[in-house]
Hints:
By secondary structure, the chain is mainly beta. Helices cover 11% and strands 42% of the residues.
Amino acid sequence: MKRESRIDPVPTYNLWSFPIMRRLPLFFAIFACGIATSARAEDGFIPLFNGKDLTGWKIPDPPSGNFKSVKEVKNDEGKVVSFVATDKAGKEITLWTVKDGTIVGGGPMSHIFSDVEAENFVFRAEMKINDKGNSGMFFRAGFRPGVPKGYEAQLNATNGDKIKTGSLYPNGEFKLDKFRDQICVVMNTAAHKPDEYFVQEVTCIGDQITIAVNGKVTLDKWKDPNMTFTKGHFALQGHDPGSIMTFKKVEYMPLK
């Protein structure tokens, strides 16, 4: 995997160089951030995205059969901030990048995977998807090019696929299509609009899967009789060149 650095440095400041009256608001802001961080830790969720770079995420090389290779783009701190692929025609395409504190994906199909693997958990993302866009939150997924070998919670507001956000995708490769009537629970109309932030949460315990959108349960404790996948990575999907997905928060809570 090739590596490249092209991000401008972020300026740093010495807090003690500010006059005392200007330092006080900064101290209060730092204190407030500390309280917020503690509160976040106490709710049991662990961030998978730090809001700054792609630390903790990886991508297959190549990401799928559409590409020859992929490279990491790093900032001056040596942190990966983008994954840029080269297609078979030799054209470079930015598939995933960090922009304004979010992960933005697009381009031909690709997936980024968490370094973390989990068995039982709550997997939660705050995100938005463009009009006609399609994406997915994968869990218990195997790391490989193309479509991950794992479960997929659909992300779709207005794409032509009738299966919308809140459903478990019935991938035929893994014989989940046999349960289509049970797991495709949101059809035709999504609970959110395109380009509108929403929260999708997946709870996975043993053979049981629950999905909720904006706090409303859509798939309620569905039990996979085949226990198709038991443990794996979390993954985010870039579905096609017309889809743009923006993830503000990605986090999980381990369960026993």
